[in-house]
Amino acid sequence: MNSQWLIVACLAAALAQGQTKPAKATGYTPPRTADGQPDLQGIWNNATITALERPPSLAGKAFFTPAEAAAFEKLTALQNNRDERGPDGATDVAGAYNQAWFDRGTKVVGTLRTSLIVDPPEGKIPYNEAAQKRLAAAVDYTRAHPADGPENLTLQDRCLVWATAGPPMLPGPYNDNYQIFQGPGYVAIVVEMIHDVRVIPTDGRPHLPDSVRLWRGDSRGHWEGNTLVVETTNFNGKSHFRGATEKMHLIERFTRTAADTLTYEFTVDDPATFAKPWTASIPMVKSDGPIYEYACHEGNYAVPGILAGARLQEKKLAESGRK
After folding, report:
1. Total count of domains within the chain
2. Domain range holding 10?
3. Which of 91, 115, 139 is the last residue of a domain?
4. How far apart are CA 205 and CA 163, in angstroms?
5. Are residues 299 and 232 in the same domain?
6. Do residues 37 and 74 share a domain?
7. Which pLDDT tens digits describe the chain residue by residue (323 residues)?
8. Quick one: 185 and 196 in the same domain?
9. CA distances from 147 to 75, 301, 311 (A)
10. How far is the CA of 317 from the CAs of 141, 310, 311, 320, in angstroms?
């Protein structure tokens, strides 16, 4: 505990020292594929401890100094250590996996930004008033009906969709690996988590009819210089990315900015949920791999266990005469 307080003190002191500027563009020219497109192929990893939204403790501060970043990384490593299981059995079980299973990264992003969101400047998702009310009602409903049936459980618990798969693709607690393949007219992205594959046409074909709605939407790509730009529409509204509806419109940009770095940026627009579009930027680092299969459903005892536990609780409440 003493070491934790020491790191907190160091971080607090560092926060008073100001902030750095973003890194300048390197002017890197990526290699080309056989058909002349920028070569984005390979295995990339986006693990980072930088949060999507800026934490309240860093409000008004867009960038860490190097000293702040080092202190933040040490503090986060202590706070995220899942081997600190707690004093009793219930706390231990609530901790789920131990530290060996996690690979969320140990560093903030190289730009030293305090959030992955770069616009708006405050680093927060700009929810509109209607969305705030809708999301609050959804939270209340979930608390009242945590496990009536499997449909009440999260998409992650049900092995349907993870935020790592997206789109947009966000870092997760583990399995932050992606493999990009390119061919004439197509780019494919293999996502390690739940073994998803995004196949993105780049041959100029139109989007699917509005009546066709998909879990990951309908993606179409084109090249702007060295950047792959992907537009995704036709979401089915079930993945609810950060509360978005089926009307979410997504623009992703993939730019190889160094031999070992792929800069991934995305802009989300959904007037039903957000007061204005917002943008995040995530660096992806080249990895030797390989990518191993992530089997989510196989041996997934969490869903039947959660539902069985809920039924047991209901039975006990009924036997006690309470409602």
Report:
1. 2
2. 1-30+50-83+102-115
3. 115
4. 27
5. yes
6. no
7. 333 333 334 444 433 333 333 344 558 999 999 999 999 999 999 999 999 999 999 999 999 999 999 999 999 998 888 887 777 777 777 767 788 888 889 999 999 999 999 999 999 999 999 999 999 999 999 999 999 999 999 998 888 888 888 899 999 988 899 999 999 999 999 998 887 899 999 999 999 999 999 999 999 999 999 999 999 999 999 988 999 999 999 999 999 999 999 999 999 999 999 999 999 999 999 999 888 888 887 777 888 999 999 999 999 989 987 55
8. yes
9. 35, 15, 9
10. 20, 11, 10, 5
Can you read off the two tokens belonging to residue 254?
A: 């993939």
What type of residue sits at position 193? M
Residue found under tokens 């100094």: 65
The domain spanning residue 283 has which CATH number? 2.40.128.20
Task: Kindly give, in sequence order, each residue whose CB lies less than 8 Å from that of residue 255, ignoring residues fewer than 6 positions away.
Answer: 226, 227, 228, 262, 263, 265
